[in-house]
Design brief:
The chain is of the alpha+beta class. It folds into 2 domains: about 5-75, Nucleic acid-binding proteins (OB fold (Dihydrolipoamide Acetyltransferase, E2P), Beta Barrel), CATH 2.40.50; about 80-155 and about 215-275, no CATH class. It has helices at about 80-85, 85-100, 110-130, 135-150, 185-195, 205-215, 225-240, 245-260, 270-275; strands spanning about 5-15, 20-25, 30-35, 55-60, 70-75, 170-175, 180, 200-205. The relative contact order is 0.12. It binds zinc ion.
């Protein structure tokens, strides 16, 4: 049986048969891969403890007819601080859920792997530096926007999606169905045409929220350019002083946009409501 080696992060883990596991792994070289780990739940199994959620691991997989099989897993990074901190791990679960929902098997993009790994590392280190709740929410927002950018759903934040004119300060809306901002003038015109009832597919967005979203927007580039973009984003999170409500409102807005695109609820967002 032919085998292949890659680094991957475990994003989903389900029991299978008596002692096995079915896993979804976001790998560096092959994108999202579904694989089975036979006897992984046996007390003395060699894979025991090496296939937990969040783990960044070096894997050897064997090609299978229907599903590939994990034959070896060596932990590179366990993100133990993140996993042992309730608030941070909820943030982590949300991130895993997003990457699982927004990507499909066979979608290969090393930048997605890089985003996932760097954000988990940032949160893991953040537990030791007592990262404030606002910074956790900012990191979540960074992840949302970047994953939207890398999966082809970049929100339009500079021009009105209806008329194409530059966005001016004022009462602008974010349209989920059109994937970006609708300027105040177009909103007024639409409301004049159809005065009864408001559209559920858009929501008011403040000028500061637009500025915040723009900070994290990735405009395209290779892995090296992407890495430097991410580093700049982390610097911003470390320095920028913003109101927590503004960040959370932006996270919920982007979550609605993501839910609109994937056509299902993202359950993990609820962790932020309790912060
Ligand atoms: Zn317009």
């Amino acid at each position: 049986m032919s085998t292949y080696k890659t680094e991957g992060i475990i994003i989903k883990r389900n029991n299978f048969l008596e002692a096995s596991l079915i896993l979804d792994i976001w790998t560096k070289d092959y994108g999202k891969v579904e694989a089975v780990a036979r006897s992984a739940r046996k007390a003395k199994g060699k894979l025991k403890g090496h296939l937990e959620l969040f783990l960044d691991t070096e894997l050897i997989l064997a090609h299978g007819k229907n599903i590939d099989t994990i034959t070896s897993s060596l932990t590179i990074n366990s993100f133990s601080n993140l996993r042992n901190n309730l608030e941070f791990s909820f943030g982590g679960y949300y991130i895993l859920e997003l990457v699982d929902r927004m990507t499909i098997e066979g979608h290969q993009d090393e930048r997605v792997f890089c985003l996932l790994k760097e954000v988990l590392l940032f949160l893991d280190v953040g537990t030791r530096q007592c990262l404030v709740p606002t910074a956790i929410a900012m990191t979540t927002l960074l992840f949302q926007i970047n994953l939207l950018n890398l999966t082809g759903f970049s929100p339009e934040l500079n021009k009105c999606v209806l008329c194409g004119k530059p966005i001016k300060a004022g009462k602008n809306h974010f349209s989920f169905s059109m994937g970006g901002i609708v300027g105040q003038e177009c909103i007024l015109q639409k409301e004049a045409e159809r005065p009864i009832g408001r559209s559920a597919s858009r929501a008011l967005i403040s000028d500061n929220a637009i500025k915040l979203l723009r900070l994290f927007q990735f405009k395209g580039g290779d892995l090296r350019e992407y890495n430097s973009h991410l580093n700049k984003c982390f610097e911003i999170i470390g320095k920028l002083k913003v109101e927590e409500k503004l960040v959370l409102d932006s996270v919920f807005l982007m979550n609605r946009f993501i839910e609109f695109n994937v056509e299902r609820k993202i359950k993990g967002v609820d962790f932020l409501r309790g912060m």
